[in-house]
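JOB MANIFEST
job_type = single_chain_structure
chain_count = 1
residues = 94
[input]
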Amino acid sequence: MDQTVSVFPKNKFQEIHVGIREFKGNDLVDIRIWTVAQGADQMVPTAKGVTINVHLLPQLLKALQDAEKIIKENFNNLDSSKKGEASLPEKKEE
């Protein structure tokens, strides 16, 4: 099974693709950066990314939820409406 689940901008030149892939009989979650190749009009996958077995997805989701919780506790202005911006929000004053 090869299915793209989500695509969202990383910055002006790159996108993050999330997909489900099959490789050598293993079902995998693939999170990969795609970019425009020199002289091309279409996006191509890069070597930058992570591929994990689908059985590890619950652990990945928990780790991302934990990271989100820490970010919300320690930063102001967590604004997901800023599409394509990969910078962290301002740190809370203590």
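[summary]
Residues 57-74 form the longest helix (18 residues).
The chain has a mean pLDDT of 86.
exit_status = 0
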